[in-house]
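Hi W.,

Here's what went into the run:
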Amino acid sequence: MRASINWLKEFVDFSLTHREIANTLTMAGLEVEGLEEIEGDTILEVSVTPNRADCLSIKGIAREISSILSLPLKDVAVTPLNEEGEPPSINIKTPQLCRRYASRIIRGVKVGSSPQWISKRLESHGMRLINNIVDITNYVLLETGQPLHAFDLNKLAGGCIIVNTAQSVNKLLTLDGEERALNSDMLLIWDKEKPVAIAGVMGGLTTEVTSSSVDILLESAFFNPISVRRTSKTLNLITESSYRFERGVDIEGIVYALNRAAQLILETAGGKASKLIDKYPKPFTPKQIHLKLSKVNKIIGINISSSEVQDILGRLGFKNKKKDEEEIIVTPPSFRQDIIRDVDIIEEIARLYGYDKIPPTFPVVRLQPVGKNIRRGIIATIRDSMRRSGYSEVINYSFLNPAVFDKLRLPSDDKRRDMIKIRNPLRKEEASLRTTLIPSLIDNVSFNIKRGEKSVRFFEVSRVFSHSGQKLPEESMRLAGAYLNMPLSLWQGKHEGFYDLKGAIESLFLELRIGDYSFTTGDICEQYLHPGKSCTIKIGSHNIGSLGVLHPAVSQAFDITGDITVFELDLERVLSYIPADIIYKQLPKYPYVERDISIVVTEDIKVSDVNSAILSVSSDIIESVVLFDIYTGHPIPKGKKSLAFAIRYRAKNRTLTDSEVDAMHSKILNVLENSFKAELRS
Amino acid sequence: MIEDILSIKTLAEEDVKKADDLGTIQSIRIKYLGKKGILTDRIKSLSSIPKAERAEYGCVINETKDYIERIITQREEEFKTSELGTLLKARHIDVTVPGNFVPCGHNHPTSNVLEEIIDVFVSLGFRVEDGPEVELDYYNFEALNIPKDHPARDMQDTFYITDDIVLRTHTSPVQVRVMERDKPPIRVIAPGKVYRCDTDVSHTPMFHQIEGFMVDEHISMGDLKGVLEMFIHAVFGANTKVRFRPSFFPFTEPSAEIDIGCLICKGRGCKVCKNSGWVEILGAGMINPRVFEMVGYNPESYTGFAFGMGIERITMLKYGIDDIRLFFENDKRFLEQF
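Here's what came out:
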């Protein structure tokens, strides 16, 4: 709401500077967001919260200033009009949607342009100039907050007004030349034959006041806020008028605004005003609210006396009567529809008392342990672990473009394609909620490649959303990561993304004390991964995610050159496998013996298979098997590789003898020879 | 005879002096003191010396032997030391080659600030709670005293899934969910993602908020001021200016917005604070009795405060970041600064 200082001063005489008045209003809840100097005046840009419909006018803001500064509010008196002739007939068919309708006819006006003092003010308050009649309705709207409408009387069939819903009428041409599609329950203004305005939103084109108009009908009414709001929302049409009606105008100020407009029209456009018609079937009854002084002080945390409270209420125009030392009966004025219960009054007291004067205190509470959010703690650990492994955290929007699944080559029946859809997305690319974090991470890598980055390690922890069969979707946590490396320095050795990410995941499992995990191949785990460089991640026998190099076709679809490795884990599953307690195991009493074994096998033999074959020979005595070398090349024959393991032997109850270990070692070699056609490397 | 010994001593001295490496010195030892050494030979022949002279002669030989042993050992040590020196010099590494380590990754700046804020409130005994991001209209609006068709809904542009299901526009629904489940006293903070159908230089359709609230029998607005001032001083520094001014939120009454003195211009006026010297960082207030009624609390028995803040905004102020979109672009050069 824009408000001219000069205009405000017509209602309240204040001597504060522009900056001071801006600050005063801000500190009382009417935030002044800007000051604009225009010739001979300053305009305040006031942000009015939705509860303060009464401040959507110059008079309203002036009234607020008078309350805050304890200054008298000057009313602009409307001189009695020289009434001549009968008022129009007004018929309210829907009194629940139109609680009051007042009108006068003004005959013999001279439509033209507005006098300069009106046009200047309208322009500085962001209003378009139309003609003197319409301009005056806008002027009064700004001044009093009451929207008015002027019809060309001679274009109203029967010269009368009927207030009724649209019913079977489904369109209306409005003042802006747009044809509006109507709903049956929208409230309209009708003449004897046809609808002529969308009540409280915008007038119709056929009855508009033009330069040829001579007689006009002025409307000042109270339309139901919810009805106006629904209509305005449905039509996607917000006007100065609808904005005020949906917040609630002062039902008791309707006749004043009508008369003020009539007076200004007579002064500037001539004509004669008819008698007043004021249809007001159920007049306003003021509320009575009981206010307890102890509650005021308890909620605000101050110690204010009842006379101070009464002073503040008086300044606000709230009638009040002291019932006893403890209780005041308060009657808020008609323009304060937002005051419903005692706390609303308490806020008013706090506001005028000054929030800055409330002493800051610390609550006195019973000491109690803070319940630990275990899940949060684990997720923090996961983020830390990834970070220590060299991965930086990214945060992406939860939105996803469904088209991305084709790029990812996901089968048409993949569950992830079945996303939760947003009805009103900002862009169609952001129309659904993520079911996987992978596409966002690929995009992040691609974004950074385009900026010249050659090495990227990213991870994200976030929720994904899926249909649950319940009312709300299922939200579950995922951890995903991406790795890109175009090596910068050869001396660092070759970092393969797969093993880097695998290491990060293993380190994470170690930190979470999850032991029973494996990286397995077999079925193709994800269509978007390279079939030869990918695996399923399992804990026990449950799939909990996948890891692998992006399929070349997918990289191409994302316009990426170079290998990207990605993984995604279902954190809900991971969380369920974290052991709750640590149970101490006895330290071994007897020493271990370590022997290396070096074998040559064909290249397709998997390290993990050899590893478990060794362990299976004697789970009692073989304590650990650690791969320490993989070698191909001379003198190993083509198509073969050499694997070297360090095997640690230990018995629980005795020191192993050399001959026992020798026997076990050759047994292992036998097993490897039989299972893998392994040869001992000489 | 004694002269003979003394001349051996002189010869040995000369040999030791002339020796130029460890090998020579070792052969000198053998030459004089070895099994067949010159001096050893003299000691062996001691028995053939007449008894009367034997004592004196023996004494001289022994002294000489000790003496030669000493100068040889001394020289030997000198060679060993210098040889080690040469060895150490020969085997050096280039200490300026970069170390071998996995450079640690970085937390997202939003996470940093989120965790910092959570820590402050946890230290005050607030519990951390979560809630769904896809939320019922009831929890996001209705139960927070924002009925359908109320203009207050315009304060938050909402993404809808269906008529009754929205992407939560704030973390406040967690308030309602927690209060429906637990009885006072309650002290909770609820961090998380929220969504608004809005995008421009200062708005993104998704951002992070932290909601906090406290309900007990005697919570006042003064307590709200005390707790939030303490929080602001903990996060932005003890000298940060704070002001509370009236505002409106349907779920609090009285409501307040909290500004801090602009950290960028120190209150002199700049683009960030729109020349006002103040930047808004928090919305807060005393929980509206309507909300208590909705969750089944008796509003005459309990009072409470609630507050909410946008994390990206606070992060921007804290680190001097001037474009909110940077938070979601995930540019490595940006992320690695935190």
